[in-house]
Amino acid sequence: MKKLLILLGLTSVFSISASAVVFSDGTNVDDWRVYTDTAGEITTHDGVLSFSGEGKATGYRLDINKKYGASDAFISWYMKYSENFTIYVRLTTEKGVRYIVYTPRVDDRGISGEFIKIGLGDSKAVLDGKWHRVVRNLEEDLKKFDPDNNIISIDRFLVRGSGEIDKLQTGSYYDIVDINYEGYPYAEDAEDETIDGWSIYSGNSDKATITNVYDGDKNSRVIKLDGQGKATGYRFDSPDGIYLSGYDIRMCWDMKASEDYTVYLRIETEQDGRKYIAYTPRDENRGVSGNTVRIGLGKGSMDGKWHKYCVDPGMVLGEYFGYDKGYGTNSWIETMFFRGSISIDNIYDIADG
Ligand SMILES: [Ca+2]
Ligand SMILES: [Ca+2]
Ligand SMILES: [Ca+2]
To answer: What is the set of domains in the chain, with CATH numbers?
Structure first.
């Protein structure tokens, strides 16, 4: 019996500054320009920006013009490139203009004039045609080779080379990492690029896949379940689990569905055995059937868009099976089951919802 309490009092630590600024989320090209004479095109598809031109001879630019503050220390973007690129972040500093230059190289090449050259890693890994997230501390990158300088403003983001970019933002560290506003850790946020903990438990497993992919609409990596509709069942076993230490524990997840689905929470209760809460895209709750409570998330949950759901498992069991069984204090969840081809992200639990 594994009961892990993940209530670390994090709210007080990360007292929630949702101050990240997203400069480009890939939904429009409005503020982007081709700034070189060479031909180039900027388009969007599936919620990401796509640049196509004559390789590094074509440059694409976004004006940012943001006064630099403590909450801008980190800059982050997602990128998918299979050919060479150079990215410049133009800064105004106390010593004039500086460009932080990011390239697919292992080594940093130091400062030369206004240019501070930083390597993003081995080109084979960076240019593998897959989505990667770049997270940089601008101040650290500047001061590494220009130690007595300070940033005044972030002026521009410039890209040379054809490829795709999404979710360009600045923020503090806790804005940039995908920590939720409540400050609780995710049991799954897919940012580790793995499907650890996920498996197919029913249906033709050779006709179904679980993949960790970048979702341009969500601006984030997600877990994508793809099989034969509700005939395929998937499970997620959380290494940490959720211990219901009170009726105020909520459980949340983000989901995108365009077809019928069922999401099951499996709840181990000390006094009353195993219980399930089954969430389906119905407008009504259908109540108890055996050891399962059936709750509707509404037909709108199949609209093909991302939605966040937060539920109170202990309260639901108490309401349908009786509050005298201690569901809110001596129960825990380690496993979720899913049926249907849907995408999932950001599974976590919060106290005092
Ligand atoms: Ca994971
Ligand atoms: Ca996007
Ligand atoms: Ca994610």
So the answer is: 21-176 (2.60.120.430), 182-350 (2.60.120.260)
